[in-house]
Amino acid sequence: MPKQVYNSIFLMLEDEDIDCELETIMPEREYATLLVNRERIHPKDYEPLLHLIDKNKLIVDGDAIERTIIDRYITSNQKEHLSEIQVPVLT
Length: 91
Known about the structure:
Layout: E1 31-36, H1 46-55, E2 59-60, E3 65-70, E4 82-90
Antiparallel strand pairs: 1-4, 2-4, 3-4
């Protein structure tokens, strides 16, 4: 299995007043998105998303974002675990 390489990590906080020099607001833009019914994303999960991007003649415009939405800390039922891959695209 290929080694996963990350160039950053982030936390999404809702309704929090945080004053931090490292705080960044992600710009609104177009994303190709895939939901995965698992806590962890695997490299093979990118294949259908990249196929969709290619099929629709979209252009990848930046690094993918992997986000865990529901994990073992929210529910112990693995069938409810949910992760998301977002790839910024140009249409």
